[in-house]
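hey can u check if this looks right to u? its 621 residues, i copy pasted from the old doc so theres a chance i mangled smth
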Amino acid sequence: MQTHRTILWFLCLLISQQIFAMEICDNGLDDDGNGLIDFNDPACDCLAYVSSSLIPNPSFEAQSCCPEANDMMQCVDNWVQASAPTTDYVHTCEGFLGNSEIQAQAPLPFPDGEGGIGIRDGVILPVVNAAGYKEYLGTCLPQPMESGKSYKLDFFVGFQEDVPGSQEFDIAIFGSSDCINLPFGNQQDLAGCPEATDNYSLLGMQTASGSNEWVNVSFEFEPSENLSVLVLGPGCAYNPNAYLQPYFFIDHLRLEEKQVVSPILVDVSGSICTEDLLLLAPLDSDLSYQWYHDGIALTGETSSALAIPNNALSTGTYLVVMDDGEQCFPSEEYFVTLPPYYSLLDISICEGDVFNVGEQDFQTGGYYEQSIPASDGCDSIIQLNLSVLPNTSSNETRYLCEGEPIEFFDQSIEEVGSYNYSIPNTAGCDSLITLEVLASQSSEGFELMDQVELALGQAIDLSPSSSSEGLSDYLWYEQDFSLLGEGPELLDYRPLESSTIYLQALDEYGCSLLDSIQLLVDKSQSALMVPNAFSPNGDAINDHFRLLLDQGIENLDHFQVFDRWGKLLYEETSIAASKHHGWDGSYRGAIMPMGVYVYYVQARFIDGRVDVLHGNFTLVR
């Protein structure tokens, strides 16, 4: 049984070493198992980062004691609790691997060494509450980061296995100019995050996520002032999962000054066509060399020169990386392809145009092959599929109307004549348009009556009194040019006011014709008439006391009948004039006696006027 446990431990150790293996950038192997080899792996991005040793105790291995409980940051050298809420030092030396209050456990193995830091992410609450804390760790740098210089900071964030609320972490870094500002906020619980104080600035923030793993995060920044303090922890924003007590781990920090090095030029001699192509890097006895083909190291190619053979496997991109022991220098890339170089050109030209390949011009459509010497001495075969698109032409005729210029392609034409235009057609070739402008012939047109008199509410049918043939597009307008109708007739038109009505039409040449008619509305003819007597005796003659209403009256607001003592006997309210019925001489079923009665009328005309009448009438039997 002990042997089985030993074998199982060895297998777990072997697997864990494979999981966290680092990519070796010059052996042609996929060391970290991510499917990317050498310089195709982002971990091998040779941008000449110069290590400045700015982070003390970067993997928290230097210690004065082993942590046995929460809040034991005093055990780790060169690092402090930067906030009042306390970070946790975790290490395998005593088996303490997380916060005991929330049963957090760091994923094993650590990226570097046997220890790390545990951090809780939450929102600062008015009341001290462990689930609401945001915790930060900090260090005073051995030498300051200088203003205006570029730096790179990368480290690993550890995630517990599938713990709700602890699978995503907004990690932020902050800087301060003076170590006296560490810790920040005077160790007050309500200090919040470093940026909330006047002494810290945010250098960067990003989101990392994972489960039972360590995830590498990287920041690049340029300080605006010299910085002596670096603080890490959660972003300042409210964490909606604070009640779940989110908890994460930090390990293996590296802070480096970034120096950008210009690409090294590689000389080229010979030609792959003559099988003597040679790539040459600057020769320097203090440099080591490694050549790469499509980002993968070429085994054994560690001199300043690289000979490239003429075979199908040689095509691709080449570069060399030079190293002086402290930093690396990647050269510019050189692309190799095997002759002959074939290029397929599918070209369309317009009729009359010329397409040039090498020293030959082509104007006729068809398929061609043309051999052109390349700069490296190899032939380049151009395969040309040439199409010749025709130019087009068309003719248009327009008639010039009196006082109306013709608008054609942004040009205003006011004289008869022939005009030529050249514009691109749908294929992009020339399209020649010839425009013939002719004078329109006189037309009799149409004629309207000069004037018509109407009573208010009277309808009228309007049409031309005479009209010539070939007219079209009739339009009727009010004097404010609002459209009334289309066609040669305007039927059942009832004007409310005196106005002028216009009729427009187009003749056979497209010229506009216009005439008008004046409509005079006599409102004095529209009146409210009231009879002075009626005889409700059932002979079907004058049996109702009814108002005489003409077409100018639209509505009866009130119609009331009273006896001589003011008692209301009959009433009609808010009815259309056409619905007016009148009084039949009775009240609640009883026949009213002969005598004098009183009426009150308020009538509304179709033009909005209101007329009020009152008086008396006689009931006769």
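The CA atoms of residues 181 and 199 lie 7 Å apart.
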